[in-house]
Write a structure and sequence with these properties.
Blueprint (H helix, E strand, L loop, with lengths): L1 H12 L2 H5 L3 E7 L5 H7 L5 E3 L8 H4 L2 E5 L5 H8 L6 E6 L3 H8 L6 E5 L2 E4 L10 H6 L4 H8 L4 E5 L6 E7 L5 E7 L8 H5 L14 E2 L1 H25 L11 H16 L4 H13 L9 H7 L3 H24 L1
Parallel strand pairs: 5-10
Antiparallel strand pairs: 1-3, 1-4, 2-3, 4-7, 5-6, 7-8, 8-9
């Protein structure tokens, strides 16, 4: 399967028409997600630079974010593509050189974020994380936002680490909007990628010292992130040991409500905590607010203790349900 995946993806990233148009192939690699990646990259002979914002200081060296110029025959390409299920890298095509792209795009990793209306603060942002980029692209709601991000990029390709046969391809069209399509790499490709690339007129323009993610983008990003999380959770639940005990009827509505409830009622924000809270809600027929533990969870100060309590409740409830089934 890996060989088939690699053989299908590489023609999208490397082909004669790309070279004719002067388009180069790049990857952005998350070192923190696969520590051995740096050793492989170091010995690959490929050119690369750190893409984290300079303002991060020592932190940018500890978990580097590498912008890498790829060469089709270099073994590093197959190495990265073979690990597509680990959300290790995103890929894009651009006519610009490595240093020019670094100088322009490093500012996207430390933008000024409007978390509340008219309240801005600088924040580290994993824009090029494979789990983040598709949702960030959805926030580009205006022609200005689209141009700002896609000025130096003809096309992005993001592997899906959950549905591992699929990739998301995004590109700017002439109407100054973004088109995103999901492609199943286990099947014959039914579109001409060269036609897509013809729609891009790339002008990088002057470098900007500070990027901004406004409040509207934050709202869009949080909604898409929530929906992505709920889809991943649903797949995990259906593949889990407790799947036969879970009532999946009206899953979307119930999971959405439980997601908000975990955050707003109990201050649970981590994916691990919210995941367990939703699982607990799906295991029980009644709303969680009708159980005594509902209030108890909120009394814990630290989220780890809340997660541990959710684990204990899930274990207890599933064991009780199994006993009823076996009995």
């Amino acid at each position: 399967m890996k060989k088939q995946y690699i053989n299908h993806v590489k023609p999208l990233l490397f082909n004669a028409k790309n070279k004719e148009r002067g388009l180069k192939t790049y990857a952005v690699v998350e070192q923190a997600r696969h520590l051995k990646a740096f050793d492989e990259l170091h010995f690959s002979t490929l050119n690369y630079v750190n893409l984290w914002h300079e303002g991060l200081g020592e932190e940018r060296e500890i978990a580097a974010l590498y912008l890498v110029e790829l060469e089709e025959e270099n073994t590093m390409v197959n190495y990265l593509l073979a690990l597509h299920h680990e959300a290790l890298a995103v890929y894009f095509l651009s006519p610009y050189n490595l240093e020019t792209l670094r100088d322009y795009y490093h500012t996207f990793t430390m933008p000024s974020v409007e978390r509340k209306p008219n309240e801005f603060q600088n924040a580290v942002f994993g824009c090029f994380d494979p789990l983040v980029l598709p949702n960030y692209i959805e926030t580009l709601y205006s022609p200005e936002k689209v141009r700002e991000f896609f000025n130096g990029i003809a096309l992005t390709l993001v592997p899906n680490s959950e549905e591992t046969d699929k990739v998301q391809i995004s590109y700017r069209v002439q109407t100054e909007k973004v088109e995103s399509i999901e492609v199943d790499m286990s099947k014959p490709i039914d579109f001409d990628i060269n036609t897509i690339l013809m729609n891009n007129e790339m002008v990088l323009g002057e470098n900007i010292e500070q990027r901004t993610i406004d409040y509207k983008q934050i709202e869009i990003f949080e909604e898409f992130s929530k929906q992505t999380f709920l889809k991943r959770a649903l797949r995990a639940y259906k593949n889990g040991e407790s799947s036969e005990m879970i009532n999946f009827e009206n899953y979307d509505v119930r999971a959405d409500r439980l997601f908000e409830e975990a955050r707003e009622e109990h201050g649970i924000f981590s994916e691990a905590g919210v995941y367990r809270y939703i699982l607990l809600g799906l295991l029980l027929e009644k709303p969680l607010s009708q159980f005594s533990f509902f209030t108890k969870i909120s009394t814990f100060i630290h989220e780890k203790i809340k997660v541990d309590e959710l684990d204990r409740l899930i274990t207890y409830i599933t064991s009780q349900q199994k006993e009823q089934v076996d009995g």
